[in-house]
Amino acid sequence: QVQLVESGGGTVQAGGSLRLSCAASGRTFSVETMGWFRQAPGKEREFVASIMASDRKAYGIQYADSLKGRFVISAGNAKNTIYLQMNSLKVEDTAVYYCARKYGSAWSHWGQGTQVNVSL
Q1: Residue 44 contacts residue 64 (beta carbons within 8 Å)
Q2: Rounded to whole angstroms, what are the CA distances from 13 to 2, 94, 113, 118, 120?
Q3: Phi and psi dihedrals of 111, rounded to 5?
Q4: Looking at residue 59, what is its pLDDT?
């Protein structure tokens, strides 16, 4: 099984930045499609960004259109690690951010989430 563990959440002032990390452990593949989602209270979980990650290069990066230019997804030097650099944060970015792994066409594995609070 695959376990995904997010870290890096916290509280930041509007306009500030945070970088989230996601480490995958257990049974993983050499190439993984991984991504970030977020869910605010009372709202649907929404797609943030995804990346086809390996231990060498990143391919197929995608972003939610509304977040493109502010958020950057990347693959770490370590295997099975991705990041989400969040810049120019807005209050409406407040949410629980989840790391996920895609298997086939489905997002089949999810982390526990990390809380991001953006204050005024």
Answers
A1: no
A2: 34, 11, 20, 6, 6
A3: -80, 180
A4: 81
Distance of CA 112 to the CA centre of its chain: 12
Q: How far apart are CA 19 and CA 7, in angstroms?
A: 9
| pLDDT, tens only, 21-60 | 999 888 766 677 999 999 999 999 999 999 987 766 778 8
Residue with tokens 């089949």: 108
Q: What pLDDT score was predicted for residue 2? A: 84
- Are 93 and 65 within 8 A, CB to CB? no
Q: What is the 3-state secondary structure (H, E, C) of the chain?
A: CEEEEEECCEEEECCCCEEEEEEEEECCCCCEEEEEEEECCCCCCEEEEEEEECCCCEEEEEECCCCECCEEEEECCCCCEEEEEECCCCHHHCEEEEEEEEECCEEEEECCCEEEEEEC
